[in-house]
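HUMAN: Forgive my ignorance: could you write out one protein's sequence and backbone structure tokens?

ASSISTANT:
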Amino acid sequence: MPGEILSQNEIDALLSALSTGEMNPEELKKEETERKVKVYDFKRALRFSKDQIRSLTRIHENFARLLTTYFSAQLRTYVQITVVTADQIPYEEFIRSIPKMTILNVFEVPPLEGRILLEVNPNIAYAMLDRMLGGRGAGFNKIENLTEIETRIMSSMFERAFDNAREAWTNLVEIDPMLAEFEVNPQFLQMVSPNETVVVISLNTQIGETSGMINICIPHVVLEPIIPKLSAHYWMQTAPKKDRNLQELTVIENNLKDTQLPIIAELGTADISIQEFLQLDIGDTIQLDKMIHHPIVIKVEDTPKFHAQVGKVNKKQAVQILEELEGGSSEDE
């Protein structure tokens, strides 16, 4: 191996130390001959730096806040979820650390490879189930006797809950979480090899008076493509606070775009007396106050918003927007 090249100043400093006795040539030779060995445990391979673990912690702190909001709304009771620890351990060690019978939700997260495991302590899972079915949220454990209805309710609830990971991970990658498997016995679940390194994020969960843990197990194969984005350098280069606020507003705006609104295409109006109304019969015609070639008004939530013209598209009745009404609150006849 080629030696390190020293600068002239470093050479002068080294010669000065040798001449003054600050450094002993024999000790230098002895140090060179000694082998520098660092102990490495292959069963507990550390594939992530502390910096990367901190980044994952920040991401899942946001995820915990989203879960708090989601479960509080779904269960209609006090729910508090916080990140307790985030560590990298062998998969086998994680399996040994969780109960022998527990709630295991396995998710695929395309476009990333591999699967993520969401493990929910039975006490917490049953407290959630009890609230969903109208109870007080009492926590108990009868996981050996889990019925098909309970299985269906739980899997559906946790599938919708984990969908919040889509937003929590948005700064890293756009994922599409999908529930792939629901299991209660960890011994029947083999996602990766026993010695494979996984990141485990533990969330302390409080539902009323019941508390327990929710563990998120992420194998190395899932995070491998996005490891560079977990560095502090990447987060330092992310947008400033003003831009982050803009990104949050964009997320809210995109969610609002999915909101459904009633739209009315008003062909016209007519005023008739009660006597005329009572005398209406099949085949009678009511003359409206709009001519066929005049634009009609499009109302959104009963508020006039556009002018449009009536027509057909593929033999179906349709309207074509002509212009937006100024102010969107008054008809422009």
